[in-house]
Amino acid sequence: MENPANQKLVELHPVRYLGSFMMLSKEETIKYAVRFVEKGFLCSEAVLSALSQTLNIESDIIPKIATGFGAGISRLGEVCGAFSGAIMGLGLQFGRNTVQESPLETEPYEFGTTMANLFITRFGHLRCRDLIGLNLAVEADRQAYRELKLWETRCRDIVRISTGLAYDLLEARTGDSNP
């Protein structure tokens, strides 16, 4: 029997699959992430939005569900927002809606663990403050972040690369790709 709370959530926030999976190439997906950043979206919002475009999923809660994850969870410098956006984007494909579902015939954490390992291999850390060398919870560090233009020189690259890593994982796990 389905949980009535789950049914209510579906009614309030429908997810619409607009067609076939992975209709965008990796390059197009990364370009979407960059465009979202250029429009002023946060790292977490940009990655999630680009991956939802690739998965051809529309929802009125994307990108706003990712807003609080930007800058290491609301400027706390914790888990990188681009990484969090990637995890949310992967969850659109590999996540579950009921406790009975077993995505990928494994534990529900596998896609997150795999993404974390790829991210750490590439960047050395998951924490925003370790990635940028500043603590954005501190005003002086926020000022240095702006002066050093780290959004433009570091964070945008992390958004771009995180989007690509997530795309690669989607492609590897589904066997679907576009040129």
Counting helices, strands and paired strands, the structural category is: mainly alpha
The general outline is: globular
Treating each run of at least 4 consecutive H or I residues as one helix, how many helices? 9
Share of residues in strands: under 5%
Got a strand count? 2
Computed CA radius of gyration, to the nearest angstrom: 16 Å
Q: How many angstroms does the end-to-end distance come to?
A: 42 Å
- The order of strands across the largest sheet is 1-2
Helix content: 55-70%
> Low-confidence parts lasting 5 or more residues at pLDDT below 50?
1-20
Listing every helix as H and every strand as E from the N terminus to the C terminus, the arrangement reads HEHHEHHHHHH
Strand and helix layout:
Elements: H1 4-12, E1 15-17, H2 26-38, H3 43-55, E2 57-59, H4 70-73, H5 81-94, H6 110-123, H7 128-132, H8 139-147, H9 150-174
Antiparallel strand pairs: 1-2
Helix pairs in contact: 2-3, 2-9, 3-5, 3-9, 5-6, 5-9, 6-9
How would you describe what is shown here?
The protein is globular and about 45 Å long. By secondary structure, the chain is mainly α. Helix 2 runs antiparallel to helix 3, helix 3 (43-55) packs parallel to helix 9 (150-174) and helix 6 (110-123) crosses helix 9 (150-174). It has helices at residues 4-12, 26-38, 43-55, 70-73, 81-94, 110-123, 128-132, 139-147, 150-174; strands at 15-17, 57-59. It is built from nine helices and two strands. A two-stranded antiparallel sheet has the order 1-2. Mean pLDDT is 86; it is low at 1-20. The protein has one domain (20-174). The longest helix has 25 residues, at 150-174.
